Amino acid sequence: MKHFLIFLLLISFTSHSIQLKEVVHDLEQPVDVKFFPTSNTQLLIAGKEGELTFANLTNNIQYEINKFDVKSGSEMGFLGLTFHPDFSENHYLFVNYFPKDGDKRTRISRFLLTKASNVYSLSNEKIILEIDQPYRNHNGGQIAFGPDGYLYIGMGDGGSGGDPKGHGQNTQTLLGAMLRIDINTANNIPYTIPLDNPFVNTPGFKPEIWAYGLRNPWRFSFSGNALVVADVGQNKYEEVSLVEKGKNMGWNIMEASHCFKPKKGCEQSNLVLPKIEYPRSQGQSITGGYVYQGSLIPSIKNHYLYADFLSGNIWAVSYPAFKSPTKLLSKQGNLSTFSLSDNGEIYVAGYNKGVIYQLIP
After folding, report:
1. What CATH code is carried by the domain that includes residue 309?
2. Is residue 93 part of a domain?
3. How does DSSP assign 62-95, residue by residue?
4. pLDDT tens-digit series, residues 174-213
């Protein structure tokens, strides 16, 4: 029986065996990667210092499209990008960055991304939204269109440590929240509020808020209509949660499923607790990923993949049950973001090495 159990464990491990194959290199601190809509080979890469890079995996063409002039100290910089759902018609690219001039602030802008002489270029910036930042960290950074066509913006609590300004539970600020706005507007209006946002016409709430109580949502993704968010912890725990309309995700009352302020006896009846968490012994800064629907690695299909920036671990957990997390790889360097190709294959960025990897058997 003992040998049989060992055999089963070996089967379990090898069935999830993956490796990282380098597909793009010579990058500067990549923090976000997006494939062009319907593409498995062409992608855009955001570099923290401001570089927007194009790469083609088929012919290894790679070049810098634009260099944003950014504040890049600490966790600031060029942090996120996403294509408009109708990109093939309107050529709109949205970005999240810290402009170098003026005070610290998150800027969400729309650009035209067009091709001439087989080279892409940016033009026509339209500023959608700016949010003042009190500190240089916990800036969130990701923007993404949901299946409903609205733009979702993940905002951290504004920084320092322990949320000293209480932004996580302050519904009169856009910090510490998941925002949802409509950018398909007329007459050059930057954005409008979707009528079904949870706090429209609710006193004491910013109407852009979709959910609140987040610390630093470093990467989120949609699986169907579900919004899966990885939230970086404070001292002890990292977490993954399902973020739903109008919900309070707990920070800074809670750190994951544990009382943070106060440390004992916190009231949590109206708070959403995470689906999974892990302690600092396994990692110290979570990087959210995607639910795998590709074909190269059948053993992890319908599993949510996520990583840790400091430990370099990559895990897979069954979805939507979020049961039995399995460590796929460890000590893979600073993994800053995941990306999904049109055919459902998953890629991950190595921040310090300046590379993009594909997950393969």
Report:
1. 2.120.10.30
2. yes
3. EEEEEE--B--STT-SEEEEEE-TTHHHH-EEEE
4. 999 999 999 999 888 999 999 999 999 999 999 999 999 9
Tokens at 40, concatenated: 């498995």
* Any domain includes 96: yes
Decide if 15 is inside a domain: no
Residues forming beta bridges with residue 52, ordered by sequence position: 46, 66
**Residues paired with 350 in a beta bridge:** 335, 355
pLDDT tens-place string over residues 210-232: 999 999 999 999 999 999 999 99
Give the DSSP letter string of 123-190: EEEEEEEEEE-SSSS-----EEE-TTSPEEEE----SSSS-TT-GGG-TTSSTTEEEEEB---STT--
Burial 196-234 (b: 16+ CB within 10 A, else e): ebbbeeeeebbbbbbbbbbbbbbbbbbbeeebbbbbbbb
Residue 351 falls within a domain, yes or no? yes
CA atoms 337, 340, 344, 348: torsion sign: negative
As for how many domains the chain has, the answer is 1
The domain containing residue 316 runs over which residues? 20-360
